[in-house]
Amino acid sequence: MRLFLYTVLVVLPGLLFGQESGYTHYESKDGLAGSTVYCMVQDAAGFMWFGTETGLCRFDGTHFKNFTREDGLPDNEIVQLFADSKGRVWIAPFKRAVCYYYKGKIHSPDNDPVLRRIHPDDFVIRFAEDKAGNILIQSKKLHLVETSGRVSEIDTIDSQPMPWINTICAREDDGFRILANNKLYDYRKGRFTFKEGVPFRDKHFIYFAMDARLLVSCSYWQREEKVFFEQKKMLSLQHRKDHIRFAIIDDSLVGECCTSGAAIYNLKGTDSTRYFLQGLPVSSMLKDYEGNFWFGTLGHGLYKLSSLFVSNVKLKRDNMPAQVFTLTRYGETVLAGTEVNILFRFNAKTGRFEKGNIFVQKFTGTDPVYAILVYKEKNLICGSSSVLYKMGEDFKKQAEIPFLVVKGLCLNGDKLYVAGKDYVFKIDARTWKISDSLWKGRSTSVFASHDTVYIGTLNGLYCRLPDGGMQFLGEKTLALQTRITAIQPDVAGVLWIGTYGDGIVGYKDGRVVATINRHNGLSSNVCRALFLEGNHLWAGTDKGINKINISQPGMPITKYTTSDGLATDIVNALYVDSNKVFVGTPEGITFFDEQKIINQSHCDLYFTDVTIGGASCPVDSLPALIAHNKNGLRFDYVGISYKSNGDIRYRYRLLGLDTAWQETRETFLSYPTLPSGDYLLQLQAINKFDVHSQLLTASFTIDKRLYERNWFRILIGLLFISGTGLLVWFIIRRIRKREQEKTAISKRISELEQLSRKAQMNPHFIFNSLNSIQQYVMDSDVTGANKFISGFSRLIRQTLDFSSKPEISLEEELDYLSNYLELEKTRLENAFTWSVAIDKNVDPAEHYIPPMILQPFVENSVRHGLRYRRDKNGKVTITVKRVGDHLVCVVEDNGIGRRAAMEYKSITPINYQSKGLSLTADRITMYNKEHEQKITMQIEDLEAGNGVALGTRVTISFPVL
């Protein structure tokens, strides 16, 4: 077997390098169903399917989904897979059965009547589909599944028993092509047509592969393999004795799976053969839609070759690995400084190794080259762990400074700044003389602009000012207090500073203008190298490469890791020229053309599941109308881009809820409680290379609640109107009733006031008063008559005046009572005395009460209490005091008492009935109905211990107004 290995001539035979491919390896721990992969296929949607010894596996680039007997498979060991044009994935278990996966369900003989009619006589070897969609199945016999559902078994050719079947395929136009017992047949519409004979010694199916344009076969007994085209063109290939199977990859590539690796034969290119996974038993291979190569192995899992455009070159000297620390463009080559005191040369356009390596020191062992600079186009300045030297165009040393440990170099015109283990100093690059010492201590990097020098150390970044002063930039910026690994300026004057633990800092005009770390997309905060190319800042970390577009808002980042073909994620150095990317790593040099990788990148987007109210439903049967009580929706989806290795973001919006686009990296969207309405979900996937998928949409309607339906709203409206009308009618009725009651009360009050006015002056009192006036006239007592008439007229005038007012002052009420009592005293010939006592805390002029409330009680005291006393010691006392929020008025007499008064009334009846007390009680009742604060009244009979009446006391409490 010819090993696909670049070998180069170097200065000494001990200098070697080897080119290898980068793989992404998947095992059971990553979710793969089993470590033995028998077969693989990519379906129409782009999903990868793998048949393993322990189940069927579907892969979307991010997640594995495994299927076993519990999911409906007849057997867990899957030996053959085939994807047809309808989206079905046909599955052949080791058990003699056929099934397929379609729209989230495994169809097997247990649940599908068509599959139940297929009876393979052995395990299935191959599937084929013609243009009409008919499926041909190869085992020992042929089984045809037509699109109509008809199943037929083909066991004869031209009425002869079916010979040994080598392989089958579909024709380009219609029907199938069958190679059986070294004879090629066309099979169309149930008939075989002999095509030609193919003289192969071996007949076993593993030695054959065929499609509509190409037939591939080899013979174990012959020394060469043969590839036959339909035009009978034949190509000789190197013989492999450990052959497992062939795989026709495309028109120009044929793969061969062997127990010691895989070979891909290029039938049209210059590189006829390339070998992969040497030493591993490769059982199957496939090229996906993005150009990735997949290899299934026996017992070692699954491998993905990310790209044929990524080359990993391991550098060695005397079998000692050469780690790369620095990269520099020199003419048409890229120089790689390594740890074995050698500069390796690579073509800047192709990345291929070139002859003529450059030794730093002519001794064996290590002397790492940490920094290289090109001085005046043709001279080189190199710094290693033991020497700083300058070389001419012929790579011969012109000058050197020994015993230096150089960590970084910077040219500023003819001034060379050197960062070393214990110093930073300045050298005149022309004379090679040290002109100034700038820093004492360990330094990691250095950059100079004009007369300002930035010095990176283990403890942060320092700035030497033009006047010689030193400033610690980490004093105000925490990120600049850690180890500084690299400093790169851009055209806008921003210094991009790489740190060993805090990401990347953008520094300009004495302040931090940008910070790039894991929180905004950097793969790691450990930045090991920086390179600026145009508007892109390339950052090498311990977790791969980050390409940062510093000219766009948000500074989007594209990442490259081992999953893209890098030999390792640890990056020591970077050099980028347009699309050509050189990466220095502990494993050597990685080279790739970024544009070729991006051009092949592809991104598809599919719904994988839709859950409505906790129940899963097929994606294509999403109901247009969803009941409101089941409106908890979850959309599961996946963006398929195998080159992105799961680095996919999604933009989405749900029209009807929000019009703004949002981004997520989750592969599901959940809407637990959507309001009623019409919705349109728009979803798009964007892979790591900014390639957008098609716009995926899903429209649905959340059914309205009962109270949101039009008929229900109309009904509620009618009920509301009816209820409102009824309520208004009830309120109006109530208002009217209250108005009527109020009118009645007002009328009653008016009547009572009228009655009160009429009843205030007792007719008997008026009659007696007039008699008294007459007696004064008869006695010719003009003065007494005038005085009595004056008081009587005043009392009548006050009665008429007060009866028209709702309230009068206590002062007016007491004045009225005094006038009344004085007249009664005169009329009864001084048969009693009276007095008024007012508490000192009560100002009669400031307190108001309803008019003529006290008069009936005073009248009763005179008429019924004092009138019948046999002596003239009667007394009426009116007392006023303040108790809390009430004004308490007490009318007390020392008359004969109410019981004796009733007896006198029965003996000497009068011709009229006094209604003063009942009218006053009604007035108080009416007042209390209209006011929250009430008037209270209490009448007490005053008696001695032996029951002898001592008088009467009336207590009336008015709220303070």
**CATH topology descriptor of the domain at 741-959:** Heat Shock Protein 90
How much helicity do the residues have? 10-25%
Could you tell me how far the N terminus lies from the C terminus, measured between alpha carbons in angstroms? Answer: 121 Å
* Multimer state: single chain
- Which term fits the overall shape? elongated
Strand content: 35-45%
- Low-pLDDT stretches: 1-14, 221-236
Classify the secondary structure makeup into a structural class.
Answer: alpha+beta
**Main sheet characteristics:** 6 strands, antiparallel
CATH superfamily of the domain at 741-959: Histidine kinase-like ATPase, C-terminal domain
Shape-level CATH architecture of the domain at 741-959: 2-Layer Sandwich
CATH class of the domain at 741-959: Alpha Beta
Mean pLDDT: 85
Domain Two component regulator three Y: 641-688
GO molecular function: phosphorelay sensor kinase activity
Domain Signal transduction histidine kinase internal region: 758-831
Protein name: Signal transduction histidine kinase internal region domain-containing protein
